[in-house]
Amino acid sequence: MSSLATNLINVFGVLFAVLTVAAVLVYGERRLLALVQDRYGPNRAGPFGLLQIIADVIKMFTKEDWIPPFADRFVFILAPAVIMITVLLSFTVVPFAPGVEVVSLNIGLLFFLAMSSMGVYSVVLAGWASNSKYSLLGGLRAAAQMLSYEVFMGLSLMGVVILAGSFNLREIVEAQKGMWFVLPQFIGFVVFMIAGLAETHRIPFDLPEADSELIAGYHSEYSAMKFGMFMVGEYIGVTLISVLIVALFFGGWIGPVLPPLVWFVLKTSFFILLIILIRGSLPRPRYDQLMSYGWKLLLPLSLLNLVVTGGIVLALG
Amino acid sequence: MLSVLRSIWGVFLHAFRRRETVLYPEVKPYLPPRYRGRIILTRDPDGEERCVACYLCAVACPVDCISLQATEDDSGRRYPEFFRINFSRCIFCGLCEEACPTFAIQLTPDFEMGEYNRNNLVYEKEQLLISGPGKYPDYNFYRVAGLAIAGKGKGEAEREQPPVDVRSLLP
After folding, report:
1. Cut 0.80: pTM above it
2. Please, what's the b/e burial string for A279-306 (b: 16 or more CB within 10 A of its CB; e: otherwise)?
């Protein structure tokens, strides 16, 4: 009984926390982008503009929920749900602290990779079902980009798996008691970070949306809460990537003095802030640059990393 | 790769810079004295209306937002019967001020004219007239102009010679 109660608390706690973080990020990202751009950002509604979150939510919910007559109705409605579901499901395998996780899968990392592959469907289906050229172009770009970056996203994590000897995220974190994996797996970390940015199509890799070329890319035709789900899905994706970087490379909840959960939150916030800072700094590459960067530089790099890590681990027994 | 890191660091440093934003309702922006904002009608130093209803402002106005009707009082002074500016049309170009021969119509550094109702943007003479002389405190048109009005005959204006009797032979 008590284990059921803990499970329920974990499930709803994680769900609540993740959705709250996503909501706060909607506001927080604008404030932080403003911070690095010598502006203030939204600071009018309530103290420090915090009520902006509520204002945005009310706006999202009360906008006209328009489905274009030329759209493929069923798929059009399905697509935004897919991204929310896949991203939220990925959080089930993340260990936030000892005892704070939804499920301890022995294939946790693979489950995350599978879910992030499923996330591609959302974008592609949205682009296809919208039945407009900009959406379709965005969807095509998203498909190519996410599929090619997924390849070495998985490969970059294999070094961690070799070192920890497990796909279970809890065991991976516990294997970092002595040393964070960012040191032996620095290349893996860099590649995973870049691939993660590409997976969530955040700004240096936001070619599927590319405001200046494709209006809003795959979600051009979406409005109201359906668009909101894409946006929230993106913010949850950012949180997910940060959470995984922390769990895989920066020792998860491991840290001195402070309680484990606090360490986890602190480390995660750092990476969320870093991703927002990267959004504020870097321009979008050209599409062919994106592809050649991925296939010609990052894929060989992650393969090399994998081979060298495997070789060293084998040599040391 | 290094340049990417350098640009991220450079952007991060901007977090400690001074903000460029002017927090408007709390901090008012500096407006120079000749800023072209809300239009007013001024009075001469004696407290009379300066406007002589010559229609030059209405003619100069590129968007035809000024409308007025001239009339004349008992002393022979011209003044506008009504003077109406439609600020929903006005583009604040200042051509009316340039056209005005009596410095009556002037633009002020005030732009806070927001209204919820469009009709409220039509200002009548009561809203336009101010009690002071505006930018030219000492100027009084009827005191320097040659026009005769009640209380001031021909040749009695400032720096005006008495009229010459052209039919007389005397020097």
Report:
1. no
2. bbbbebeeeeebbebbeeebbebbeebb
